[in-house]
């Protein structure tokens, strides 16, 4: 430390006329060299450094402005997307409600159609039953009529003798002949 202070003290005692030479004391020459280099850098580099810092400042400000514009654009897009989402949700609710009412309407229509079909089937069944009953009644009547006719023919055949049979045929021929004369 004593060397450093001695070098500064010795600066003040330099003779004005002396020889030019190299100072080999590193500790004494470094502060002088540094102060000269810094002075030159500050004097000549001040403009360049100011320009570099100004350019850097402008780039940062431009980046901030661009970021703000992008942020505003993103906020606008977000608001538009939210508005579209609300609109789509409302439409979905409307479709859902319309779908439910449509389902209910279709359900009622299906129930009504099924009820109508069941009524038609019931009517067809009843009509078929009436038809079958009528057919059965007609068959029974026909059988009863045939049996009665056969019984009557049997009774007639057993009761009629040939003379009575001959008189009945003659009377019928007479009736037919009289009818022929009336029509002529």
UniProtKB/TrEMBL annotation:
GO molecular-function term, one example from the UniProt record:
proton-transporting ATP synthase activity, rotational mechanism
- What is the membrane topology listed in the Swiss-Prot or TrEMBL record? Single-pass membrane protein
GO (cellular component) term, any one: chloroplast thylakoid membrane
Coiled coil (UniProt feature): 64-98
**Presence of the UniProt keyword Transport in the record:** yes
Q: Which UniProt keywords apply?
A: ATP synthesis, CF(0), Chloroplast, Coiled coil, Hydrogen ion transport, Ion transport, Membrane, Plastid, Thylakoid, Transmembrane, Transmembrane helix, Transport
Q: Which residues cross the membrane?
A: 32-49
Localization terms from the record: Membrane; Plastid, Chloroplast thylakoid membrane
Q: Which InterPro entries match?
A: ATP_synth_b/b'su_bac/chlpt
| Family assignment from sequence similarity | Belongs to the ATPase B chain family.
Q: What's the subunit arrangement here?
A: F-type ATPases have 2 components, F(1) - the catalytic core - and F(0) - the membrane proton channel. F(1) has five subunits: alpha(3), beta(3), gamma(1), delta(1), epsilon(1). F(0) has four main subunits: a(1), b(1), b'(1) and c(10-14). The alpha and beta chains form an alternating ring which encloses part of the gamma chain. F(1) is attached to F(0) by a central stalk formed by the gamma and epsilon chains, while a peripheral stalk is formed by the delta, b and b' chains.
Q: What else is known?
A: In plastids the F-type ATPase is also known as CF(1)CF(0).
Role noted for this protein:
F(1)F(0) ATP synthase produces ATP from ADP in the presence of a proton or sodium gradient. F-type ATPases consist of two structural domains, F(1) containing the extramembraneous catalytic core and F(0) containing the membrane proton channel, linked together by a central stalk and a peripheral stalk. During catalysis, ATP synthesis in the catalytic domain of F(1) is coupled via a rotary mechanism of the central stalk subunits to proton translocation.
Protein name as catalogued: ATP synthase subunit b, chloroplastic
Organism of this sequence = Milla biflora
């Amino acid at each position: 430390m004593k060397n450093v202070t001695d070098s500064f003290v010795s600066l003040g005692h330099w003779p004005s006329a002396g020889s030019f030479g190299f100072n080999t004391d590193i500790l004494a020459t470094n502060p002088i060299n540094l102060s000269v280099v810094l002075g030159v850098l500050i004097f000549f580099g001040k403009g360049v450094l100011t320009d570099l810092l100004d350019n850097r400042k402008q780039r940062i400000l431009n980046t901030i402005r661009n970021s703000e514009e992008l942020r505003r654009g993103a906020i606008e897009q977000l608001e538009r997307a939210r508005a579209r989402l609300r609109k789509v949700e409302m439409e979905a609710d409307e479709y859902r409600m319309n779908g439910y009412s449509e389902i209910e309407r279709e359900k009622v229509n299906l129930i009504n159609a099924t009820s109508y079909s069941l009524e038609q089937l019931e009517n067809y069944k009843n009509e078929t039953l009436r038809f079958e009953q009528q057919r059965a009644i007609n068959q029974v009547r026909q059988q009863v009529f045939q049996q009665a006719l056969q019984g009557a023919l049997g009774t007639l055949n057993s009761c009629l003798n040939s003379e009575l049979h001959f008189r009945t045929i003659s009377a019928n021929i007479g009736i037919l002949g009289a009818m022929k004369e009336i029509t002529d």
